[in-house]
Write a structure and sequence with these properties.
The chain has 10 helices and 9 strands.
């Protein structure tokens, strides 16, 4: 029979029925879940699990096996992110804070203690006599040139011209006075740094001191350097609990330098040769010796001119020092390790440094 209201009514009734059913179902679900609260998803940040007990056992043997030492620059310069000590690889043995820090900020003290206590990494503060000697020698050259030119101009106004001998005497007197002034400033700075870094061992708990000795002795003499070094060896190296690392040793200070825990190669060279290490290691054959390479420059790409370790490809200096051998070799040292901080491998920074440490650990077995 035909519906009295036609097909449109039938369609409309079907649509209304579906809408009513959907509404009833929706209200029923809402009623059942009115007490349910949706919890936010927990975000788990991947982190490196540190086994302090294992690290302590491993690092207790520092003096009985080859180590890896990091020369770290810029600690505190960026507010504690890039150069933070705690972010360095777990199995790094020793880190040297190369920028002298006399006063530590709160976060730096925490970073230092956490690195030592959790990772059992030894942290040494640094004194750079070479940088001080160079700084004041450069200042001497600048001051002398400026005052020499000023003095020569003053001669033009003299009624009676100076003889060449008189001119030479005035210039010599000027140079002597400036040299004495800048020498005094250099010694004052070096002495102050020495006293503050020695105090930092007990004040902040540093594990020792690393000293870079002058290479050229432009203002600070060898005798003065030896005297300063004796103040350091009174508290570090030898029979002392604090460690002592020395860079660029010289023969005249042998009695003090032989007290060093480690001697590290750090000299400007004309050619990159393994023989540079061999000669210095032989000179200090009774000390633990560390060859070195740097993350700054081409040590990650170029090899030594006299490389002897077999490799299908050119072995970069950074790896080559791992295989170089000497009777008193006690590990390796890497400079400017802060430059490897952004090299992230599997969420962990310092990818290249970590790989080098792993290679050294394999060689130690």
């Amino acid at each position: 029979m035909e519906h009295p209201y036609g097909e449109e009514v039938i369609v409309m009734n079907k649509k209304m029925t579906k809408w009513v059913l959907a509404t009833i179902i929706g209200l029923a679900l809402l009623s059942c879940n009115k007490n349910v609260r949706i919890e936010p998803a927990e975000v788990v940040t991947p982190r490196n699990e540190i086994n302090t007990e294992t690290l302590e056992s491993y690092k207790n043997s520092l003096l009985g096996r080859p180590i890896v030492m990091a020369m770290h620059y810029g600690w505190g310069a960026d507010g504690g992110s890039g150069a933070q000590l705690y972010r360095l690889p777990d199995y790094l043995d020793v880190v040297v804070v190369k920028d002298s820090r006399h006063q530590l900020l709160g976060w730096m003290e925490k970073d230092l203690s956490t690195t030592q206590q959790v990772k059992k990494t030894k942290v040494l503060n640094a004194i750079d006599f070479h940088a001080i000697d160079t700084q004041y020698a450069d200042e001497l050259k600048t001051k002398f040139k400026r005052q020499r030119d000023k003095l020569r101009n003053s001669w033009k106004d003299l009624e009676t011209p100076l003889t060449p001998e008189e001119q030479a005497e005035q210039l010599a007197n000027l140079e002597k006075a400036l040299t004495e002034e800048l020498h005094t400033n250099a010694i004052t700075k070096a002495t102050k740094d020495t006293e503050e870094q020695v105090d930092a061992i007990s004040k902040y708990g540093f594990d020792g001191i690393c000293v870079k000795l002058p290479e050229n002795f432009q203002l600070i003499t060898k005798e003065e350097t030896t005297q300063l070094l004796s103040k350091i060896t009174a508290v570090a190296g030898g029979a002392n609990k604090a460690f002592l690392a020395i860079e660029a040793p010289f023969e005249e200070a042998r009695s003090e330098i032989e007290k060093a825990t480690w001697i590290i190669f750090n000299k400007k060279v004309l050619e990159y040769r393994l023989s540079n290490f061999e000669n210095e290691a032989l000179q200090w054959k009774d000390n633990r010796y560390l060859p070195s390479a740097s993350f700054k420059g081409k040590d990650q790409k170029e090899g030594f001119m006299d490389e002897t370790h077999f490799s299908l490809d050119e072995l970069p200096r950074m790896q080559s020092i791992l295989y170089w051998q000497a009777p008193n070799k006690a590990g390796v040292a890497y400079y400017h390790t802060e430059l490897d901080a952004s090299n992230v491998v599997e969420t962990m920074p310092y990818g290249t440094l970590t790989s080098l440490i792993d290679k050294q650990r394999v060689l130690n077995k």
